[in-house]
Amino acid sequence: MQIQILKSKIHRVTVTGADLNYIGSITIAEELMEAANIVEGERVQIVNVNNGERLETYAIPGPRNSGVINLNGAAARKVEKGDVLILITYATMDHEEAKKYKPLLVFPNTENNKLK
Fold first, then answer.
1. 53: CB partners within 8 A, 6+ apart
2. Pairing label, strands 43-48, 54-62
3. What are 61-102's pLDDT values in tens digits?
4. What is the rounded distance in angstroms from the CA atom of residue 30 to the CA atom of residue 34?
5. Which residues are catalytic?
6. CA nearest 77: which of 13, 11, 10, 24?
7. Biggest CA pair distance of the chain
8. Burial level of 14, CB count in 10 A (0-12/13-18/19+)?
9. 3-class secondary structure for the chain?
10. CA nearest 15: which of 52, 48, 60, 42?
């Protein structure tokens, strides 16, 4: 049996921008993607703490140490600059493997670029 479990979470990052005219996705500062083991193009669930919105898109890397968290395309309508988000990824694995798996939990500071 295969199940989906939490792969990684970036807990409480601040939206730095929203670009309605960009072709979809969320831009995440490269060091945050690395810390959470998120690869370019990976599906990311986004939970907006400020308004309760939940959506999914795919990740693209932003400049290293920039602190960028930018929602692009239609997702830009679901956030405002300054909103606080939780970014979640999932993995599908065997039930027994899932019991042993430990998700990566990343807790950045308020500038999104330094990990606690």
1. 46, 47, 78, 79
2. antiparallel
3. 999 999 999 999 999 999 999 999 999 999 999 999 999 999
4. 6
5. 25, 58
6. 24
7. 44
8. middle
9. CEEEEEEEEEEEEECCEEECCCCCCEEEEHHHHHHCCCCCCCEEEEEECCCCCEEEEEEEEECCCCCCEEEEHHHHHHCCCCCEEEEEEEEEEEHHHHHHCCCEEECECCCCCCEC
10. 48
Distance CA 89, CA 42 (A): 8
Between the alpha carbon of residue 68 and those of residues 7, 60, 72, 98, the distances in Å are 22, 11, 12, 31
Domains defined along the chain, listed by start: 2-93 (2.40.40.20)
Exposure on the CB side of residue 27, measured as CA atoms within 13 A:
21
Q: Check residue 110 and give its pLDDT.
A: 86
Amino acid in the structure at residue 90: Y
Residue 97 tokens, joined? 């493997």
**At 16, is the pLDDT very low, low, confident or very high (cuts 50, 70, 90)?**
very high
In this prediction the pTM is: 0.94
